[in-house]
Write a structure and sequence with these properties.
mainly alpha; Rna Polymerase Sigma Factor, Chain: A; Arc Repressor Mutant, subunit A; 69% helix
Length: 187
């Protein structure tokens, strides 16, 4: 079946986050960083699984935490640490999707030149599609909004901050994702 990561804590609970761990991590304390890692790795892996796919989730999770370690000093505390962490994760996943898309495009172009048919990007229709497959088949922006909002529990405003998108656009993506998900699951 599938598993859904437990929802992250609400904003009032985030404010109670032990800022000392973040401060020590920023100072280069590996034990503090390890504690931050252990606290958040499950949620970040679930995000990578849903947005990056099962084949790349572990690698993406590692990439996220390497980037967090190298950039934790840039965290200023303007937003909750969890929001900043998800923003880093989202950027790593998005960068990976972009490079994969460019790679596929180059391979498709080469295949067409060499006389081979280009790889199809359409999803094979199935009589019984489970929730994870339906979510994975959503367009990137709709899937991103749905996963961050409905599964990981961020508010539209927070999703907008994580993705660098306007809150109204996030609401439109959520509406589209839910409509598409409903259509795909009703087949």
């Amino acid at each position: 079946m599938f598993s859904i990561a437990p929802p992250i804590e609400r904003e009032s609970e985030r404010e109670a986050w032990p800022a000392e761990l973040v401060r020590r991590s920023q100072a280069g304390d590996p034990a503090a960083y390890e504690e931050l890692y252990r606290t958040h790795v499950g949620q970040i892996h679930a995000l990578c699984l849903r947005l990056g796919g099962p084949d790349r989730a572990t690698e993406l999770t590692q990439d996220v935490f390497v980037r967090v370690w190298t950039r934790i000093r840039s965290y200023r505390g303007d937003a909750a640490f969890t929001t900043w962490l998800y923003r880093v994760a989202f950027n790593v996943i998005r960068d990976s999707q972009r490079s994969e898309s460019r790679r596929r495009s180059r391979l498709d172009d080469r295949a067409e030149v060499d006389g081979w048919p280009a790889a199809s990007s359409s999803v094979e229709p199935e009589a019984r599609i489970d929730l994870e497959r339906a979510i994975a088949s959503l367009p990137d922006r709709a899937r991103n909004a749905l996963v961050l909002h409905d599964i990981h529990g961020f508010r539209c405003r927070e999703v907008a901050e994580i993705t660098g998108t306007a809150p109204g656009t996030i609401q439109a993506h959520l509406h589209r994702a839910r409509r598409l998900l409903k259509e795909r699951l009703s087949r």
